[in-house]
Design goal:
Elements: H1 2-23, E1 34-35, E2 38-41, E3 45-49, E4 59-70, E5 73-98, E6 106-128, E7 133-143, E8 146-151, E9 154-157
Parallel strand pairs: 2-9
Antiparallel strand pairs: 1-2, 3-4, 4-5, 5-6, 5-7, 7-8, 7-9
């Protein structure tokens, strides 16, 4: 009987927490422009995680990252993590830019890296860019034949 009472109390507390969480005021996401899945922000950095795969046993996770280093300069890169040691783990990093929320992302730079007989690979570098644009990083992650992708939000970079 005592376990039933404790269980009922915990269920009531959980229910009240969910009720309170649904009542709290949240900002509408429509206030921030979004283009092709990326919000256009003035943040200093953004990280995007790989989309979940429905099939595959080799690829565990991956992420892409972009950081504002200053006017006209960004840090761009990403990491691919395999679920175990694989024959080949790869990452392709693509830097894209956009002038505003009415345009589309355009190619700026890319590079790739491959490691053999391991479970991870990272590729990153500092990139000098033109100011006045939003920049994002898109990565393609692969471990053997499993493939996924990730992308960041866009961050605005000022003129140098």
């Amino acid at each position: 009987m005592k376990k039933k009472v404790i269980s009922m109390c915990l269920t009531l507390i959980l229910f009240l927490n969910l009720l309170v969480a649904n009542v709290t005021d949240t900002k509408a996401s429509s206030e921030v422009p979004i283009v092709d899945g990326s919000y256009l922000t003035y943040d200093n950095e953004s990280i995007g995680y790989a989309m979940k795969m429905t099939r595959g046993i080799d690829l565990l996770n991956g992420y892409s990252k972009v950081v504002r280093l200053g006017p006209g300069s960004i840090y761009a890169g990403g990491t691919t993590v395999a679920a175990h040691t694989v024959d080949k783990v790869k990452i392709a990093v693509i830097v894209e830019r956009i002038t505003g929320d009415n345009g589309s992302w355009e190619y700026c730079a890319n590079w790739e890296k491959e490691n053999l007989n391991t479970d991870r690979v990272s590729a990153n570098r500092q990139v000098t860019v033109d100011g006045g644009y939003y920049y994002r990083v898109r990565c393609i992650h692969s471990a053997n034949n499993d493939v996924s992708s990730s992308f960041t939000n866009g961050i605005f970079i000022e003129e140098p």
